[in-house]
Amino acid sequence: GCGNSALSHDLHELGYTDVTSIDFSAACIAAMRARYARCPGLRWAVMDIRALAFPDASFDVVLEKGTLDVLLVEETDPWHVSPRAAAAMRRVLAEVSRVLRPGGCFISITFAQPHFRKPHYAQEAFGWSLRHAACGDGDAGAFHYFLYAMRKGQPLDPRDAALGRRLHQPP
């Protein structure tokens, strides 16, 4: 869900002129199309992240910023995610993996710390490697956010794969 973020336009201004943005909200997509009509390389589509309407291996990069957090917003215990939420996350990540080209990169930006998010990303079935980095301006009062990068076709580190397997074990 791109929402009304200027990220797509900012990427366009940086020279990434082939950007496709999706959101579940038709009103949001209509507003974004109108706002950035002068940028022909920006495309907008109403779409559900759980069932992407793109062909297999369509993208070199898939970027999400906070969209996956919505899938877990009702969870009361981040250490023990409900089977429903875990299944929703798996479904979305499987779709991302499906639309990535070999060698493509999935980038996820979130406030979710690695011990909560990595088990979801570290599934061997997705066929990608996993790296992460903490980001922030260094201000002691600021929240850090995390960038996760998954590369399609590269092996998953065995320690990460073990994290992924634990996600599916009963508590």
Q: Which blocks of ≥5 consecutive residues have pLDDT under 50?
A: none
Into which percentage range does the β-strand content fall?
15-25%
Shape: globular
Helix content: 25-40%
Number of domains: 2
Write down the Rg. Answer: 16 Å
GO molecular function, one term: S-adenosylmethionine-dependent methyltransferase activity
Domain Methyltransferase type: 1-107
Organism: Chloropsis cyanopogon
Protein name: EFMT4 methyltransferase
Question: How would you summarize what this structure contains?
Answer:
The protein is an alpha/beta fold and 171 residues long. Helix content is 30%, strand content 23%.
Show the helix and strand layout.
Blueprint: H1 7-13, E1 19-23, H2 26-35, E2 42-46, E3 59-65, H3 83-99, E4 100-110, H4 114-121, E5 131-135, E6 145-151, H5 158-167
Parallel strand pairs: 1-2, 3-4
Antiparallel strand pairs: 4-6, 5-6
Helix pairs in contact: 4-5
Defining traits:
single chain; 171 residues; alpha/beta; Rossmann fold; 2 domains; four-stranded mixed beta sheet; two-stranded parallel ribbon
Description:
- This protein has five helices and six strands; from the N terminus they run H-E-H-E-E-H-E-H-E-E-H.
- It has 171 residues and is α/β, with parallel strands linked by helices.
- It folds into two domains: 1-47, no CATH class; 57-167, Vaccinia Virus protein VP39 (Rossmann fold), CATH 3.40.50.
- It has a four-stranded mixed β-sheet with strand order 3-4-6-5.
- The radius of gyration is 16 Å and the shape is globular.
- The model has no long low-confidence stretch (mean pLDDT 92).
